[in-house]
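Problem: given the chain below (499 residues), write out its structure.
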Amino acid sequence: MTVKRPIAVVDTGSNSVRLLVVRRLTTGAFEVLDEEKFDARLGQGQDSGNLTPAGIERGLRALRVVTQVAQSYQPSALIAVGTEALRRAPNRDQFLEAVFRETGVEVRVLTAAEEAQASFLGTVNSTSLSDGHIVDVGGGSLEFMRVERRHLVSAQSVPLGAIYATERFLHSDPPTGKEVRALRKAVRQQLTVQGRLPVLVGVGGAARSLARLHRSKSRYPLRRLHGMVIQRREFHRIAAMLVAMTAEQRRKISSINTARADIIHAAAIAIDEVMDLAGAGAIEVSGQGLREGLAWMELRPGQPVLPDVRAASIEGLARANGVDAPGAADVVAAAARLFDATRALHSLGNDDREILLAAARLKGAGMHIDYYNRDRHAEYLVHSGALHGFTHREVVLLAALLRWAPDGVPDLSPYRAVLAPEDGRCATVLAALLGVAQAAHRRTPTPLRSFAPVLRDDGLQILLRGDGALDAEVLALERQQKRLEIALGVTVQVHLLPA
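Solution.
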């Protein structure tokens, strides 16, 4: 199979210049090959509208760096865009001509509508968002988008990004109450919310920085930021804490990038006010936005919105980690039959069934790292991989199934903060079902012609029919038999049927 050349995306923002290099894995997934970030502060001091000489020089240096990295990959496409700082700068042509002269790259300045569309695509293709709002606080602009049935129905862009908001409103260090109220008032006056929706997704570097702060302060059990949910009360507390600090005090917080410490409080205030306007009880953090959206436009020009984020993400993770797709498909079918045949015993729902089948699709995900510790590696890959559309609770359960499917009882104690009380039993049952489904397909390709679990008055019978001897499969099932009996509270018997 021909390996497709990567694509590179350069985002020239008001605060930072960012590079993303990706390569297609499947029609619905890509893998990140490289990233680079340069805190250029292109929009700093742009009170008159013009880019300052210092901002231009910082921007030029940043673009020299990121284009050199991007071009080293010989990408099939290099997409370079600019946002609010360049939109509002009367002298932007001077900067763009200098960029082209020094790098050979043409930077296209996005309209506010184009920026919103790209941010929307990056968000909706990496989350389960169907109906709700998206807020993206950059250095120059605040984007507020309304999503209905996975379509962008409206977008607003106002010059209340972290740099501009700080320079216009927060003159004191720390800011006074009057200054903070003025910024909050500006957010309310410049944004319009037509009908509240409870879901709010936060996109961009500011949202991720605030999520890192929440993670460190709350001793959050997962390292991943994407999909993290911060409750309204907690976010308000974080915003109030940052506002009460000086810039120097914020710089000493290890989870905050020192280059963002002098403006992060402005972003927190703006998002906090948006949460109130939108009627959101919490904010979900997305690790993907503008750059990823531009990548999707290039990778899927006809249909950039993914029809099923979760399925596409699992397929991409499987492809990236060498999963044998036909072998995994057999396990998926067996796991589905087992779950359905034993519903009366475990009383689990369709959401739990979906987690089970997602885990089955990742059979063998850790083998290319180390065969002897493959299950632990599979658990790690789920926790740290590009898994989208799943809540953090679901990520923990999915990882636990892969770790504990071969044997044992899942240990979920490190993750209690994101789990429900009944999740221990749920994981135990699902891991046992997955262990049996994998055992029945001990060999690849499998000699099984049929796998039929049947629940009867005297217990659960697993009926096997194959081409040739099934001694290996029967032995593997015998090793799983006891744990399945304990998990379901029923006698389990394995029967061979004539070929």
